[in-house]
Amino acid sequence: MNPFTPIAAAVSIAGRHGVHVTDPVVLKDSFNIRVHLRPAPIVARIPTVTTLGRPRPLEALAREVAVVSFLAEKGAPVVPVSDLMPPGPFEQDGYAVSFWTYVEHDGDRRLEPADVGGALADLHHTLREYPGELLYLGPALEETTRLLDMLDAPPGVDRGALAELRDDLGLLTVELSGQPGPVQAVHGDAHPGNLLAAPEGLLWIDFEETCSGPAGWDLACLLRSGRLDGRQAVQRYGVDPDDPSLRPLLRARMLQGTLWMLAKARRFPQEAGRAKAALDEWRQARG
After folding, report:
1. Tell me, what DSSP letter sits at residue 179?
2. How far apart are CA 252 and CA 102, in angstroms?
3. Which listed site, 48, 83, 135, 268, has its alpha carbon 20 to 30 Å from 62?
4. Burial 49-78 (b: 16+ CB within 10 A, else e)
């Protein structure tokens, strides 16, 4: 194994804590890498593309560990941190790594909108009690600003698009700062892909984007998801999907998603077509 890969970094850290890994298997390689450290029931999570918008990945992982540890203690349906070694986060060879419990799940199960909406309502109920300090709408505001500051348009996308995106972010920053209603801890990336269908029920994962904000931010994540009928999910949550207060949050979610797709195309050139499609969709929605 190449000693300077994210997988090697995770295996090395685990070995120092008495975890013998013989067959590491990549579960997902997208914005982050998740690796099952077989035969141990441990999953290593290593930020890759996300470091473009989160230049201090150790801080993001530490926040995630703190939030999930709180939720697990309260009995919320989450995949917990590893109990076989310290969860971290650790740094090794330039990679930030955290460690989680491996959970068997049915990756082919189609989640029903009502189940997802109900699961999010339950999660929000517990998150309202979270005592830690969280940045206000960090994924929508701080990370998008960082991405715009460093992002070069990938091949096939005109550089003028970034100026348009920045203009829209400026308008949204003003709108989002005046959002009505209460502010609480929210998941930050509450789409169905971050729910595992485990034997014990649906379990939330990926709290790396947890922030403070209106509950509507997570509802916008559901409405923007292409994995299910987001309107039905939001109705089950108990909110009218046509509520006007959701509109700037929906625009912000689309802007965020567009920027992350442009960032992803930097690491995966084969994603350039999807990135351009996301940009075209954003432009069309913007009018």
Report:
1. -
2. 33
3. 268
4. bbbbbbeebbebbbbbbbbbebbbeeebbb
